[in-house]
Design goal:
Blueprint (H helix, E strand, L loop, with lengths): L13 H18 L4 H8 L3 H13 L4 E2 L14 E2 L7 E6 L3 E7 L5 E8 L5 H16 L7 E6 L9 E4 L4 E4 L1 H9 L3 E5 H12 L8 E6 L3 E7 L2 E2 L30 H5 L1 H12 L5 H10 L2 H25 L4 E5 L4 H4 L1 H11 L9 E5 L4 H16 L1
Helix pairs in contact: 1-13, 4-5, 6-13, 8-10, 9-10, 10-12
Length: 384
């Protein structure tokens, strides 16, 4: 969303009214109840302009007036707030085989969750599965305000899946397919970008103007916030760092790249490294537990992966210089067990010795991806 607001006192065109009203809603959504004077100051609006924006929002119920607060001069102030329980959003994360869903309120609090296998990867069938999940949750939380769908792929317009290799999709109008059945507004998002939006608004990045989220799991991704705005890129592909070269290594990713982030940090890559060293297949959780117990072979595997994660984080810090780097995803515990190796490599590879970028490791349950999708739906609500 554009940060620009017309100069104080200037008349607002209809499109500018919608844009500015969205900023009013988001400011209160993210920062809690605000007096009109403070809200106008934050948004650079005059009192009359703020009144023109908020009056229809109050009439429609999108904004509510809180209890009056005493102040030293003048009449008691009644802060503007949002009834977070007035709207419900469905967030859906799609993988190649399953659908994970959550219902949240306006501030991203998860009220219910569920998962189901996909009955197929044909777009119409996936849309039907999403619609079934929406009907299921709408019986508990009627009516759903909107639906966000996150997946590992590109959606330049939030409506069409431009590319999602794990589903074999190109140019699939998934939002329209789901809307046709659910009659609810739908927005699509890259899963890493959606997760980053949720972290910025409701998680470790709340209150920051810049943030980098590195995700580690089935693949490696990057979400960026700069100047309080999520960076999507021209084609919805910003943050595609999975194939960035990190170090000389024999390990290859699925595209044949040696020593890239996916080849060294993905769940499959770490499991493969452990099998090469031990001769036994084992899931990532077992590799991590073995390293924690002090198994020297598994400790070496995790330290090597931790070093690669530190190099990747340093590259992000050197290029973007964010206020914070968050390591998230189902494989994020690598940053806990391999913390020493990660931080050592990070500090050695940073360009500026006097720059300190905190790294916040956030292991979480898989449904956090779906919560990110719900955040995209909340964003759509604020702008509509």
């Amino acid at each position: 969303m554009n940060n620009a607001i017309p100069p104080t006192g200037a008349a607002l065109a209809p499109d500018e009214m919608t844009e500015s009203a969205g900023r009013v809603l988001l400011e209160i959504l993210l920062h809690g109840p605000l007096p009109r004077v403070e809200l106008a100051r934050r948004l650079g609006l005059s009192g009359p302009s703020l009144t023109r924006l908020t009056k229809p929002l109050i009439s429609s119920g999108r904004l509510i007036e809180g209890l009056a607060r005493n102040q030293a001069i003048g009449r008691p102030s009644r802060p503007l707030d949002i009834d977070v329980h007035s709207e419900r959003f469905l967030g859906v994360k799609l993988t190649g085989a399953a659908l994970y869903a959550v219902v949240t309120d306006l501030r991203g609090t998860v009220l219910a969750e569920g998962e189901r296998p996909l009955t197929g990867t044909d777009p119409a069938q996936v849309a039907a599965d999403v619609a079934d999940e929406a009907r299921h949750f709408e019986r508990q939380f009627p009516p759903l305000t909107g639906i966000g769908i996150a997946l590992g792929g590109r959606s330049p317009d939030g409506r069409t899946v431009g590319e999602a290799n794990f589903l074999g999709w190109h140019d699939v109008p998934l939002a329209a397919l789901v809307e046709e059945t659910t009659k609810r507004p739908v927005v699509l998002a890259n899963d890493v970008n959606a997760l980053t939006q949720a972290q910025h608004w409701f998680g470790a990045g709340r209150g920051l103007t810049s943030l980098a989220v590195i995700t580690v799991g089935a693949g490696v991704g990057l979400g960026l916030v700069t100047h309080n705005q999520l960076v999507g890129g021209l084609h919805g592909g910003a943050g595609s760092i999975g194939h960035q070269f990190l170090m000389s290594a024999e390990a290859t990713c699925w595209r044949g790249h040696r020593g890239c982030a996916n080849a060294l940090l993905s769940t499959r890559a770490i499991e493969a490294a452990a099998q090469r060293r031990t001769g036994e297949p084992m899931p990532l959780d077992d590799v991590l537990r073995g390293a924690e117990r002090g198994d020297p072979v598994l400790r070496a595997v995790i330290d090597s992966a931790g070093e690669a994660l530190g190099l990747l984080a340093a590259s992000v810090a050197n290029v973007v210089d964010p206020e914070r780097i968050v390591v998230a995803g189902e494989g994020a515990r690598l940053g806990v067990v391999g913390e020493h190796a990660m931080l050592r490599a990070f500090h050695e590879a940073q360009a500026w010795e006097t720059t300190e970028t905190p790294i916040d490791v956030q292991p979480f349950a898989f449904n956090e991806w779906a919560r990110g999708a719900a955040a995209s739906a909340i964003h759509l609500w604020a702008l509509s």
